[in-house]
Amino acid sequence: MATQAREAWIAGMPTYAATVDAIEPAAADTYTYWARLDELDARAAYGFQPGQISMVGVFGVGEVPISVSSDPAAPDRLAHTIRICGRVTHVIDRVQVGDRITVRGPFGRPWPLEEARGGDLLIVAGGLGMAPLRSAIYTAIGSGAFRRVVLLVGARDPSQVLFRDELERWRASGPAGLEVHLTVDVPDDAWPYHEGVVTTLFPIAGIDPEASTVFTCGPEIMMRFVMRDLLRLGVPQERLWVTLERNMHCAVRLCGHCQLGRWFVCADGPIFRWDQVGDLLAVDEL
Amino acid sequence: MRHLDRDGFAGLLALLVERGFELVGPTVRDGANVLDRIEGVADLPRGMREIHAPGSYRLEDAGDDRIFAWAHGPDAGKRFLFPPRETIQTGTRAADGRLDLQPAPLADRRYAFVGLRSCDLHAIEIQDRVFLAADPAYRARREGALFIGVNCEIPGATCFCTSMQTGPRCTMGFDLALTELEDGGFTVEIGTEEGAGLLDALRAGAATEEQIAASHDVTTRAEAAMGRDLDTTDLPNLLYRNREHPRWDDVASRCLTCTNCTMVCPTCFCHDLSDEISLDGLRAARTREWASCFSEEFSHMSFGEVRSSPRSRYRQWLTHKFASWIDQFGTSGCVGCGRCVTWCPVGIDVTEEIAVIRAADGEVRVADEVTG
After folding, report:
1. Which residue in the set B243, B275, B299 is minimally distant from A257, CB to CB?
2. Distance CA A169, CA A148 (A)
3. What is the ipTM of this complex?
4. Given A81, A106, A131, which residue is the final one in a domain?
5. For residue A276, is it within any domain?
6. B330 contacts in chain A (CB < 8 Å)
């Protein structure tokens, strides 16, 4: 029956059962679910690239598109960081360690780390935007292929800072070459870092427009301001990358829900070069 | 070109049944010419004429013996090759929580479609580009199917296949293509070896010069009678550069977002995947069901709907159909069948909407938020 189960495919992509082995709080209403695929063959064969997404599901309930937030170098145990905010995620909220979820994937175009080699990698995350970027950071700091990896993280308030413990660890004593700057729009009395939207970190980040490649994830309005300011600083738009989200049912360019202009966000993205989507995002309700 | 008389045509349908095909053809039900399973010639819409207009479809009985003297009803091959609702996966959960997920079994039936028009044969080729490589269930049905096209003689008032270069004469996608002649017989063009084999089995002789000329006259008359036309010159760029055109607000003031146009469209492929579970929580099924970009929930996100206004939904549909479809699949998503016009309850006409945008190319709406 094991081979049968692997043929429960949608457009060639199997749906795997996976067992949750840890649930970690990651920010307000947001948790990281660690899971291993049940089938040993599938687990051994599974791989993903930084920024790729899974369809994470609950048996008989439905699936949601979630980026893999763990290290691509250790794909036998997958992390998905999920905010409890919708029909399916409210059911995921009741999942306990030892319970089964389903995982279908990986899907989509990954962060283009190869294109960024040799120079500076500037990562700008807003709110939950750290979730699809963490895998890229793991790969980048493990590769030693960058002069600097500069991480700028913004959030609405301290409770919304995703992976705060890990970010503070990196900030205090991270790997050589990794620089971390944190900011929130609305600080509390205990917030020891910067105050303001994420673009206010640009002057202190030592951005070298000639040698920087930028990966950005956050609310679309935030990404548009980030891109506007970086273009003004002189970063060429061929080196500006964003990740987008849209309603996805199939994740294999069949169901049509995630279209943005000519793109199927699930398969042509979710990661896009800014000049592929910037003008589309400027159109209301496209 | 070969020839079949009316009895020969009846013999063709009988032969298809004998060879194990399930016949799907036009038949009159509930005042419409629908596609459904048929048993033979007796089920076909004898003597019927169709009257198409924006927002209106009627059948009339002409009292004659013609069986294909109409344009098309609301159904196309899509309803059978890409069913409106289909289970694609089932699963069970064991007492210890283990999941066993299974694909739905592939259908082993073979459809023989009788009476599809050239527009609908093109529509199937367009859906092939979406599903054929990716979806085994579609592929199984598609590759098992046989297609008997019938050339159009009396297009509807909402038809514009000549503008989309998809008709009225069948040029591709058929095993056999028939033309119904005045005497009730048919000329037959051969598209595949399987089609030729059927004619050989029926001992269909060659058509005469007169029959061949009459066959071409039928589609020449159809071209001349085409109800609508659409200027497709540079159409993708026209739509891309007019995303803020005031006509989108105008059409949105009429559009009911009822989704009819997408349901009757022979190429619209968007669908939902939804899961259901048994009351005991041990058995589940995943269903694929036609969806429409006109529904609000189509673009649902945790923060709300991407396309909450009818204006943005109409723009998405029309721009996808005539512009971004070409970027995605190398072909227009429109075959000019006009069903979206006929079955729009308020009679919105895509050819008119596009013509108005073209006539006022570059006009930009004054947004409410700007004017207050």
Report:
1. B299
2. 17
3. 0.95
4. A106
5. no
6. none
Residue type, B74: P
* Residue among B272, B277, B320 whose CB faces A60 most closely: B277
The total domain count for chain A is: 2
Q: Helix, strand or coil for residue A96?
A: coil
Residue B89 to residue A8, Cβ atoms within 8 A: yes
A97 with A21, same domain: the answer is: yes
In a domain, A267, yes or no: no
Chain B CB contacts of A91 below 8 Å: none
pLDDT one digit per residue (tens) for chain A, 286 residues: 333 333 457 777 889 999 999 999 999 999 999 999 999 999 999 999 999 999 999 999 999 999 999 999 999 999 999 999 999 999 999 999 999 999 999 999 999 999 889 999 999 999 999 999 999 999 999 888 999 999 999 999 999 999 999 999 999 988 888 999 999 999 999 999 999 999 999 999 999 999 999 999 999 999 999 999 999 999 999 999 999 999 999 999 999 999 999 999 999 999 999 999 999 999 999 9
CA distance B266 to chain A (A): 15
Give the one of A9, A62, A254 whose C-beta lies nearest to B130's C-beta: A254
Specify if A158 maps to a domain.
Answer: yes
SS (H, E, C) B280-328: CCCEEEEEEEECCCCCHHHHEECCEECCCCHHHHHHHHHHHHHHHHHHH
Identify the bridge partners of residue B291 per DSSP, sorted by sequence position. Answer: none
Nearest to B274 among A62, A245, A284 (CB): A62
End-to-end CA distance of chain A: 44
Asked if residue A191 and residue A89 are part of one domain, the reply reads: no
Let me know: does A51 contact A136? Beta carbons within 8 Å: yes
Cβ distance of B301 and A245 shorter than 8 Å? yes
DSSP state of A75: T
Q: Which domain covers residue A77, as residue numbers? A: 2-106
**Min distance A151 CA to chain B CA atoms (Å):** 26
pTM, to two decimals: 0.95
A80 and A125, same domain (yes or no): no
Cβ distance A100 to B97 less than 8 Å, yes or no, reads yes
Mutate to test the interface with A, among B126, B245, B275, B370 (most CBs of A within 10 A): B275
